[in-house]
Amino acid sequence: MNRLISIELQKIWKNKASRFLTLTYFILLSFIALIASIKFDIGPFKFHFAEMGIFNFPYIWHFNSYIAVWFKLFLAIVIVSMMANEYSYGTLKQNLIDGLTKKEFILSKFLTVLLFTICSTVFIFIMTLILGFCFSSYTELSIVFSDLEYLLAFFVNLLGFFSFCLFAGVFVKRSAFALGFLLVWFFIESIIKGILAFIIFPTNGNDKYFTQFLPLEAMSNLLIEPITRLSAIKSFGNQVGIENTKDYSVHSFTILIVLVWTFLFIYFSYKLLKNRDL
Q: Which listed site, 4, 70, 118, 174, has its alpha carbon 20 to 30 Å from 40?
């Protein structure tokens, strides 16, 4: 297993574009800390994000996980390229000639995806603790380590999305077209959601029962935006008569849906590779 990961990491590190994107991804994650320094003065209104409570435990787990998940697109490019380059440079065929089985090949890719996901989660965990202890008004351990389910949701979101990227790379073979496939799938899901919401179930809201099973929708449902959870935003909403009925919880059923999709993406990646004439 270590041998398989070592092979993949060497390929990524020797590729300048992949190395640049990977480093950029982790550098950008660290920029979340800069949000603490953002201040806006608009007449009598002063906005200082750190003072609004976004770095308070346990809310910070939700906030950081939600913000960080958007940067996954950088690693998505790396993962798609990681697979597509195997076809472009002929390393896939060479690996198989050298004795690597197709199952081991897909396993090596999945282990790399898993490693990226674990490293990202650990990075966010450490950075959140640092920011929380620097700015949070509550530092009791019972409060600090509550709401860690948002970090779990972040982990599952990345694992599912990166597995989807891996499948796209195997299916399409070319980086640009594989990324295009992901974009097309996003539009397909949007069309399905629109048809269900405005044509089939225009009044009763039953469309969400079906759309929750779509892969990208399930991933987005893991982490609901946290901004409207802030007490200041809630107070403003109440003053203008806007009732907030959002459910910000991380649901185990949604996690299960994404994990099932993750398994299917890896399984079909293997089946495609197994049945394909290389």
A: 70
Comparing C-alpha atoms, which of 189, 193, 224 is closest to residue 206? 193
- Helices 72-88, 2-14: axis angle to 10 degrees equals 90
Are 135 and 50 spatial neighbours (Cβ–Cβ below 8 Å)? Answer: yes
**Domain edges within the chain:** 2-29+47-275
Q: How many CA atoms lie within 13 A of 135 on its CB side?
A: 23
- C-alpha dihedral over 255, 258, 264, 270, to 10 degrees? -100
Amino acid at 187: F
Task: Kindly write down the DSSP assignment for every residue of 38-78, as one continuous string.
Answer: -EEEETTEEEEGGGGTTTSTTHHHHHHHHHHHTTHHHHHHH
pTM of the shown model: 0.91
By C-alpha distance, which of 218, 216, 148 is closest to 181?
Answer: 216
CA distances from 76 to 106, 131, 185 (A): 17, 27, 15
Which tens digits make up the pLDDT trace of 209-240? 899 999 999 999 999 998 888 766 666 556 66
